[in-house]
Amino acid sequence: MVTETEIMSLRSRVNELEERINFLYSKLGIAYGNNATLVDPRIIHAIRQGNKLEAIKIYRELTNTGLAEAKQAVEKIESSL
C-alpha cells in the first residue's frame, strides 16, 4: 500500500519535472497550445513579430483547418504567451 508520504514525494517530483520541462520549452521557444499539443515555433515567432496573419496561414497549412478555426486557435496561442 502506498503511504501518504510516498504520494507527497511523488507529487513533489512531478512538480519539479514540470518546472524543468517548462524551462526547456521557454529556452527553445516552444509553447504548448490549450489542447496540450506542441505549437510550431514558426507560429510563435510570427505572433511575437506582430504578424498574426502569417501565424494563421502557418497554422492552416499545418492543421488543414478553415480560416475561422485557425484564427481562433492562433488567438488562444497568442493569449497564452
Quick take:
This protein is mainly α and 81 residues long. Helix content is 73%, strand content 5%.
Features:
about 80 residues, elongated, mainly alpha, 4 helices, two-stranded antiparallel sheet
Give the helices and strands, then pairings.
Layout lengths: L3 H25 L2 E2 L5 E2 L1 H8 L3 H12 L3 H14 L1
Characterization of this structure:
The chain is mainly alpha-helical. The protein has one domain. 73% of the residues lie in helices and 5% in strands. It contains four helices and two strands, in the order αββααα. Strands 1-2 form a two-stranded antiparallel ribbon. α2 runs antiparallel to α3 (52-63) and α3 (52-63) crosses α4 (67-80). The protein is elongated, with a radius of gyration of 17 Å.
> Biggest sheet, in brief?
2 strands, antiparallel
Which structural class should the secondary elements be placed in? Answer: mainly alpha
The number of helices is 4
Radius of gyration: 17 Å
Cα distance, first to last residue? Answer: 42 Å
Q: What oligomeric state is this? A: single chain
Helix content: over 70%
